[in-house]
Amino acid sequence: MTCVDANVLLEVIQQRSHAQVCEQFLGNADDKAISTLTLDLVMYFVERDKLALEPVKEFLQSFSWLPMVDADAQWAFMHFQGKDFEDALQVACALRENCSGFATLDGLLAKKYKQDITIQLLR
Fold first, then answer.
1. Of 55, 79, 94, 109, which residue is least crowded by CB atoms under 10 Å?
2. pLDDT of residue 81
3. What are the φ/ψ torsions at residue 9 (nearest 5 degrees)?
4. Are 17 and 76 in contact (CB under 8 A)?
């Protein structure tokens, strides 16, 4: 199972510049998941931008939803090095859930956590 970063989903939902690359990756991914943190982040932007809920809800339901637990926060505090706690939380969740990889558009995340989990940097 591949855990997918919030930025990949937002790219598709908001039709940003890398949407096509992200759509292609998601279309070819067999078993994909998101953390409940990602779910919350995406829904924040959906509400803020007043996007149609039903298509977004259907898109989000195509992923397995991974819960966040206390151990994820503990791992994140130990590994985030003072920058981007949200990234550390997502990686912690993916590791705890035994995901085989993590897909993202974030080069800094990819560099920072490549020793912890297989990162697929989408470009």
1. 55
2. 92
3. -65, -45
4. no
For position 39, which CATH number holds? 3.40.50.1010
Closest to 114 in 3D by CA, of 105, 123, 101 = 101
Q: What is the mean pLDDT of the chain?
A: 97
What's 61's DSSP letter?
Answer: T
Rounded distance, CA 1 to CA 9, Å? Answer: 16
The alpha carbon torsion through 122, 17, 86, 109 (nearest 10 deg) reads: 40
**pTM check: above 0.90:** yes
Stated length of the chain: 123
* Per-residue pLDDT reduced to its tens digit, 22-41: 999 999 998 999 999 999 99
Whose tokens are 């996007």? That residue is 51
Q: Which residue segment(s) compose the domain that 46 sits in? A: 2-121
Compute CA distances 83 → 5, 77, 117, 123, whole Å.
Answer: 17, 10, 18, 23
Residue 6: what residue type?
A
Q: Which residue has the tokens 């974030």?
A: 106
Name which of 1, 37, 5, 14 is nearest 103 in CA terms. 5
Looking at residue 67, the DSSP 8-state letter turns out to be P
Question: Closest Cα to residue 63, out of 86, 94, 108?
Answer: 94
